[in-house]
Amino acid sequence: MTDQEMLEESARVIGVVGDKIWIETESRSGCSQCASSNCTTSVVAKLFGVQKNKLLIDNDLEAKPGDQVVIGVPGRLIAKASVLAYLLPLILMLAITLMGSALGINDGMQSLLALAGLSIGLLLVRWYTNRDISTPGYGPQLLKVVGNGYKHVVFPKHMRS
């Protein structure tokens, strides 16, 4: 791990496969910590509920199923991916539409060209992000183990068989 700024997220280990672990994180809306229940964002978040994301990452810290862990993604990577994901499709959509306009293509066809440019941009973003997915430091990294596995439960005498 380098000394760069990491965006951190907590997760739970759900499985071990060789030297890798499956982790599960929960996607929350941007205002999930807000006490207000009458804003539009909280209403939409309640409609879709909490989504669970599963990721396979390197197990550098020997985490076990049930462990609570903290994972991190380099902040510069998030910024780069955001700019790429938003700007490239938009720029291609506008460039192809402007080329169609310069060639005298009618409005209906320009709309189709805009859709084609947007689609090409999204495909390029997908290709670019998928080609380097195995590069070290590109994806989430295991930063620390917070809690140790499943807790040993001792049942009261009246519950034992």
For the sheet with most strands, the description reads: 5 strands, antiparallel
User: Outline, from the CA principal axes?
Assistant: elongated
Strand content: 25-35%
Which structural class do the helices and strands define? alpha+beta
Radius of gyration: 23 Å
Query: Helical proportion?
Result: 25-40%
Mean pLDDT across every amino acid position: 80
Output the number of helix runs: 3
Domain tally: 1
Q: Tally the beta strands.
A: 5
Return the string of H and E elements. EEHEEHHE
Parts with pLDDT < 50 across at least 5 consecutive residues: none
Strand order across the biggest sheet? 3-2-1-4-5
N- and C-termini, Cα separation: 49 Å
InterPro entries: RseC, SigmaE_reg_RseC_MucC
Protein name: Fis family transcriptional regulator
Transmembrane segments: 83-105, 111-129
Keywords: Membrane, Transmembrane, Transmembrane helix
What this model shows, in words?
This protein is α+β, with helices and mostly antiparallel strands and 161 residues long. The protein has one domain (6-151). 39% of the residues lie in helices and 26% in strands. The protein has 3 helices and 5 strands. The chain has helices spanning 40-48, 75-102, 107-131; strands at residues 6-17, 20-27, 51-58, 68-74, 141-147. It has a 5-stranded antiparallel beta sheet with strand order 3-2-1-4-5. A hairpin with a 2-residue loop joins strand 1 and strand 2 (20-27). The termini are far apart. The mean pLDDT is 80. This is Fis family transcriptional regulator. Keywords: Membrane, Transmembrane, Transmembrane helix. The chain crosses the membrane at residues 83-105, 111-129.
